[in-house]
Amino acid sequence: MSAERGAGAYLGTKVLLDREEGGPAGYYALLSDALRDELIGLGLITAAQVRREVERLEAPGIHLGARIVARAWMDPEYKALLLENGSEAAERLGIKVGEAQLVVVENTPRVHNLITCTLCSCYPRSILGQPPAWYRNKVYRARSVSEPRKVLEEFGTHLPADIVIHVRDSNADMRWMVLPRRPDGTSDWSEERLQGLVTRDSLIGIAEALQP
To answer: Is 202 considered catalytic here?
Structure first.
């Protein structure tokens, strides 16, 4: 199951990147580097400050999101709080949301949520770290809205036709995260063990949680 899932993710990423036109992404990367070098050259910032900021941004990882999900799977009261106020629920576990309001949506047997950011690449970095390259890709951003079911299939996630797909568009004021469905056969699992079933892709909605 995990090998098949990995292959699906690889193929989905390859399809998205193969469709990328290539120019603008390279341009903006070069522009960012040039701006950084200019600011350092003017003495407005230092290379050490840039490095520390990059380290701060990259420090979070999916383990924080996995902790939140596993607690919600185990604790109905915490789950209710999470769906009502994601930022407050995260802070209840000592996890600070550093950007906009965190909104968590639940996958159910009838609804599947897919996260995107059509304008740029808004992403809950303080919880999940840096977004994957395909999430920032303009082809993903466009196709996740226009043909979400096909995009999911390219990543190896095949949903029954009667499941409704809701595409959630992040923005400067709001970051979305998915509460994936708890896999069957885990009723006696510990919270720590459940965390191992939560992946970055399941928190974005491009996949479901891993099966035990």
So the answer is: no
